[in-house]
From TrEMBL:
The keyword Coiled coil applies. Residues 57-175 form a coiled coil. This is Peptidoglycan-binding protein. Residues 211-338 form the OmpA-like domain. The chain crosses the membrane at residues 24-46. CDD domains: OmpA_C-like. GO terms for cellular component: membrane. It comes from Marinicauda algicola. The lineage of its organism: Bacteria, Pseudomonadati, Pseudomonadota, Alphaproteobacteria, Maricaulales. It comes from the Bacteria. Keywords: Coiled coil, Membrane, Transmembrane, Transmembrane helix.
């Protein structure tokens, strides 16, 4: 198809530029391809170089690890050798000290050997005197043996006498025990007779009773309240007992040791502030002494009497009722051995 006239005119005026444009693009494309080829080749070369360096670096790291291990081993060996050197040094010092000690000991032994040699020479010079001394010692030893034999004989005789004396002592002990048992039995018999006589004398008197092996008097029968002075009625109550004790002294043989023990007891009620005694203990002791003094006044030998006070610490009745308190306020008489 034919171009319009104005287009053909324009194309002819501007010239044909497409071939040049195509040539320029082709040239640019070749340059780009060349650059890509160069870049690819450079990348490949660089990659090869880096790969070689990585291998060298890995090899160097492995070598470095090996050298580090060898260095550690060398250090350990060095420390071990250093320690061994120290030990050997100490052993060497110890050996040197031991050598010095042995040298000193050798010198001392040499000195002692010299002294012994001198002593031996002196002993050889004194051998005759030593023999005479030995003979004298032998004679003395023989005499001592004879003396020892005599002493053994005397010891055997003494042991025999000691055995005989021990047998006599045993016999005396048995006889003494038998005598004591006999005296105790006789005293028990007299005690029984004495208490039987007192029971007959006192009868069923109020305030007097037998408790075991003791005669018990309620102190209300003998003393006013809080006082240690015997009442007239109390003295009259004690007179038959004193007569019985006096008769008892004529009946019991002199070889039997006996006493009438007078024990004073009180109740637990404390004394008043105006009481003549500081405690019930003092009151009980004073009452026992008053009874003993009354017996002495009535003719009882003082050697056959003994007084003791126990306060409120040995009651025979529990409770704080009037009857129990009255029973605990008492004087006890007991015939016992001295």
């Amino acid at each position: 198809m034919a171009l319009p006239q104005h287009l053909r005119i324009s194309q002819s005026e501007n010239g044909d530029y497409w071939p040049g444009f195509v040539d320029a693009l082709a040239t640019l494309l070749l340059v780009i391809i060349f650059l890509l080829a160069v870049f690819t080749a450079g990348q490949f070369a660089l990659s090869q170089a880096l790969t070689g360096r990585d291998e060298q670096l890995a090899e160097l790291n492995a070598r470095l690890s090996t050298l580090a291990e060898e260095l550690n081993l060398a250090r350990s060996e060095n420390e071990r050798l250093t320690l061994r050197v120290g030990q050997l040094t100490q052993e060497n010092q110890a050996l040197e000290e031991r050598n010095l000690a042995l040298s000193s000991e050798l010198e001392q032994v040499s000195a002692r050997l010299a002294a012994v040699s001198e002593d031996l020479a002196e002993e050889e010079a004194l051998s005759e005197e030593a023999q005479a001394t030995i003979a004298l010692l032998n004679n003395q030893m023989a005499a001592l043996r004879q003396e020892l034999a005599r002493l053994n004989e005397a010891l055997e005789a003494s042991e025999a006498r000691e055995a005989e004396l021990e047998s006599q002592i045993v016999n005396l002990g048995e006889r003494l025990n038998a005598a004591l048992a006999s005296q105790v039995a006789r005293l028990a018999q007299y005690r029984s007779e004495f208490f039987g006589r007192l029971i007959e004398i006192l009868g069923n008197r109020t305030g007097v009773r037998v408790v075991g092996d003791r005669f018990v008097f309620e102190t209300d029968v003998l003393f006013p309240s809080g006082s240690a002075e015997l009442s007239q009625a109390g003295r009259q109550s004690l007179q038959p007992i004193a007569d019985a004790i006096i008769q008892l002294t004529t009946e019991i043989p002199d070889d039997i040791e006996w006493v009438i023990r007078v024990d004073g007891h009180t109740d637990v009620v404390p004394l008043g502030p105006n009481a003549p005694f500081d405690s019930n203990w003092e009151l009980s002791t004073a009452r026992a002494l008053s009874v003993v003094e009354a017996f002495i006044d009535m003719g009882v030998p003082p050697a056959r009497l003994m007084a003791a006070g126990f306060g409120e610490y040995h009651p025979i009745a529990e409770g704080r009722d009037p009857a129990s308190l009255a029973r605990n306020r008492r004087i006890e008489l007991k015939l016992t051995d001295r």
